[in-house]
Predict the structure.
Amino acid sequence: MKKIIAIALIATMLMTGEAVMAAPKTDSASQTQAPKKWDSTLQTPEIIQQQTDKIEAAEGVVTNDSKKLEETIFHIEIQNTKNRYRTFKGNITDNTTWEFEDWYVDGSYQGYMGSDSFSMTLDTAQFGVGIHKIEVEVVDDEDNNDTLEIQFATYIYSKSSNKPSYYTTFSNCLYFKAPYISNYDYSGYGLCIKKNGKWYATNTKNSSQIIGSYETMRIKKLKGNKKYQLRTFYTALKDGYSFNGPLSKTVTVKTGPKKKPPVKKIYTKNAKVHSYTFSIYYPSLGIIRYYRSYYTTFTAVVKMKKKPKCKGIWIGSKKVKGNKKTYKTKFSISGKLKGKKLKFAVQSYGSNVYGAYSPVYKKKVKIKGKKKK
């Protein structure tokens, strides 16, 4: 009942009044170190795949716009198809009255040729990732004309901007949060993980499986207490095809232990209930009202059966450093908790950078004060 009254008072304060004194900071005994499930997109590692064969099949196809002429009269080809700088060559094979004139890339005018042959080299990266179309106009001395079309692909040529840096590991999975993507040409990031000598990544066949800016992805089915190598790459879905960029530098991480921390006992001591008074000013009424609230301070002690072989442990929301058999930390939690049971969560961590968290040990513990002499 008291909790309901306190909540009602706080709600009233937020809607109608202004607090003159702030409440003390409160801790949590049951908090765990894990992202919320609804903050992540569940992914199963699959072998990294770029649709190279499909993309190359879409290149180099020459078509006539109006179909007035025999296709054997013209010859156009693409050279250096996997390089950033592509060479396009064309010639008229058996009719000297025809010549190449204006040419375009994706409808943008590029220049005039005025010859029965041409050779041009393009920096294809300037046209962005995807499938692009070159159009070449041909005209004869009787003003007959036609337009030839040839497609080429532009890949992602730059490396990923950063190696993996937003990640957290657990005993059987890891979470990766993609950084901001500043290049509008890229759809998102891919995260690679090395397993059995091969690089695996999320499947990039459709847009729902690509990591966008600040999105979180979970890679599951990992083994506990094992090292894994990670790399990132840009990825883009353009014109119905999947384009992946080069892989970034490698980062090595380790998953957390398979088992929960070897907790022997959890107990509390020195519990004390405190009270404080706060006031709320109600502008519409022109009055100040005073209220009393409570919080409990105590020391939590966690004893281990053996040293957990870690950098430290989390007891609820409190981080305690060290690899030892006894851990102590102080709590301050809202409410009158002395004599009541409270759920505690204990979790070890193996890295200050990426966590390497263990499974969670949970237990309800009675909040006790000083023993009477």
